[in-house]
Amino acid sequence: MIDGVGDARTVTFLIDEPGERLDKVIALRLPELSRTRAQRLIEQGFVFVNGEVVCKPAFKLEAAASLTVILPTSAPTAYAAEPIPLEIVFENKDLLVVNKPAGMVVHPAAGHMSGTLVNAVLGYVSGIEGVGDEARPGIVHRLDKDTSGLIVVAKNDVANRSLQRQFAERSVEKIYLALVDGFPPTDAGRIEAAIARDPHARKRMALVSEREGGKPALTEYRVVEKFAAHSLLECRPLTGRTHQIRLHLAHVLKCPIVGDTVYGRRKPTLPLDRHFLHAVRLTLTLPRTRKRQTFIAPLPAELEQVLETLRK
Length: 312
Description:
With 312 residues, this protein is of the alpha+beta class. Helices cover 18% and strands 30% of the residues. α1 packs across α2 (35-43). The N and C termini lie far apart (63 Å).
């Protein structure tokens, strides 16, 4: 049966297909969904088996189970191109490297159908609409809304495939700067803690063991500068899980990022209306030429001002 639920619809049906993967069953039962789209819905916490959320696409079903899929209202297949200024760090015929400001959402979604990076890119690059995922044209990775810094956008299918392969092979190097409350136990280290969608809060992530469906997540860090009650860290995520750095710093190191009211303190310890996380350096191999290149985005003024205040 299909019921309207707010800005989504819910599909519930009984299944009797023991041993089959959850994503495969959903794609077969809902032919309007691709296997990739089914996997994304599962990972985002929109799928329930016998009333319990399941966030692992490879989850094996049991006989006579009740399967519920929440389908958010589909975004338009053609998003609006908008004349939004972009800070272009690098551009060639294959890709853009953009310095994204804090506050900008990467791609349209419920509540953010305009003003996103995708809207801006559509207004800047012609013919990008069909590149990659139709819901995220040109987007091969993402940054959280309040995380600033470098993000790469594919301008054609050749670049999209090359960049996706590089991210899958973990050959893209991403370096972030994060100001945290407190001090890590060591000045440098490696965090290894699996991550999955929080079963109790769909918009949050949580530390979940791999046996329980968590995906491996690795983050290296080193202390760059220490202050009276804060530390500036350089973080290198070796995997690309949602909210990985924020979660690892807050729940493994016990050093939440300043201004992160989701995983850190509800009241920021410093006057900042965003979290202090910035993608400062990005290294990748350019499609076609195979040239390895590094891009830099200095800290934005509001974050640099916080550091200057702490140094006084």
